[in-house]
């Protein structure tokens, strides 16, 4: 696979789904499962993205190769992509699942994996590997040929619309700063978050997500709204089952 396609595919995991969707799923999980600390668990649902260098301004380090998401190569409909290796994470932290940071991190990986699999199975098909072209099934049932960068923009716009829909219609509980985040994060072996990393992330959440109720034109192109609602509901069910199993380890 050429470098351009490889790099693009690695970025696919970023914000897939968007942070608002991660927070909403975390909220629903907290209603169904007693975590050690719901607030920290909710925040940990976006921790793997902090060092990606796309959302949080000026992180202390920018990681390469999608490594915060435990990448494992997969092929779906002829397309190669990185999916989070949730089993590797689970095995590595099997003694730590009562830690809300570990539990939230694991939840993020589960959700990214599930949403990316659904995307590629239901909408993406490789058309020309060398030219990085995909045959894409749009939400009206038609199939069109797009360069990967073009369809990524369409996908992210659909997720932006859906995220705003959730923000407008649900009382999403966004996490608040807790000095214990760093204490719980010490169990993470690969990455060390500085106080500034955490503070900047909360500033970004406050600026971009909290109380952002805005009218949005629900002009979905790739997904249908019902499809995204189904993904969200299925995600909650999946995560609940996986977390309960992991806590029992």
Observed structural traits:
5 strands, two-stranded antiparallel sheet, 249 residues, mainly alpha
Short description:
The chain has 249 residues and is mainly alpha-helical. The protein has helices at 3-11, 19-32, 38-44, 47-50, 86-92, 100-122, 148-169, 180-185, 195-208, 225-247, and strands spanning 71-76, 79-84, 124-128, 133-137, 143-147.
General description of the model:
- With 249 residues, the protein is mostly helical.
- It has one domain (3-247).
- Helix content is 52%, strand content 11%.
- It has 10 helices and 5 strands; from the N terminus they run H-H-H-H-E-E-H-H-E-E-E-H-H-H-H.
- It has a 3-stranded antiparallel sheet with strand order 3-4-5.
- Helix 2 packs antiparallel against helix 3 (38-44) and helix 3 crosses helix 6 (100-122).
- The radius of gyration is 18 Å and the shape is globular.
- The N and C termini lie far apart (38 Å).
- 36% of the residues are buried.
- Residues 1-15 have low confidence and may be disordered.
Helix content range: 40-55%
Taken together, the total number of domains comes to 1
For the termini, the CA-CA separation is 38 Å
| Low-confidence blocks of residues | 1-15
Strand count, sense and barrel status of the largest sheet are: 3 strands, antiparallel
What's the rounded overall pLDDT mean?
Answer: 89
Number of helical elements: 10
Q: Indicate the overall shape.
A: globular
Name the structural class. mainly alpha
The largest beta-sheet arranges its strands as 3-4-5
Strand content: 5-15%
Q: Tell how many strands the DSSP assignment holds.
A: 5
Helix and strand run: HHHHEEHHEEEHHHH
Instruction: Return Rg in Å.
Output: 18 Å
């Amino acid at each position: 696979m050429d470098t351009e396609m490889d790099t693009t595919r690695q970025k696919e995991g970023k914000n897939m789904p968007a942070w608002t969707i991660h927070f909403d799923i975390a909220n629903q999980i907290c209603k169904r499962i007693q975590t050690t600390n719901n607030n920290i668990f909710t925040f940990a649902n976006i921790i793997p993205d902090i060092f990606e260098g796309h959302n949080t301004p000026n992180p202390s380090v920018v990681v390469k190769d999608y490594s915060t998401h435990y990448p494992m190569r997969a092929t779906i409909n002829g397309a190669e992509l990185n999916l989070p290796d949730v089993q590797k994470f689970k095995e590595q932290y099997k003694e730590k699942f009562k830690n809300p940071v570990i539990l939230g991190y694991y939840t993020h990986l589960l959700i990214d994996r599930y949403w990316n699999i659904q995307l590629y199975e239901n909408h993406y098909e490789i058309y020309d590997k060398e030219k990085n072209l995909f045959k894409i099934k749009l939400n009206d049932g038609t199939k069109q040929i797009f360069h990967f960068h073009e369809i990524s923009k369409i996908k992210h716009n659909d997720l932006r619309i859906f995220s705003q829909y959730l923000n407008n219609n649900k009382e999403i509980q966004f996490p608040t700063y807790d000095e214990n985040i760093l204490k719980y994060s010490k169990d993470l072996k690969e990455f060390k978050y500085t106080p500034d990393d955490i503070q900047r992330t909360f500033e970004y959440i406050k600026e971009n997500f909290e109380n952002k109720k805005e009218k949005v034109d629900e002009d979905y192109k790739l997904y249908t709204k019902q499809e995204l609602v189904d993904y969200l509901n299925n995600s909650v069910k999946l995560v609940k089952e996986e977390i309960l199993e992991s806590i029992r380890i």
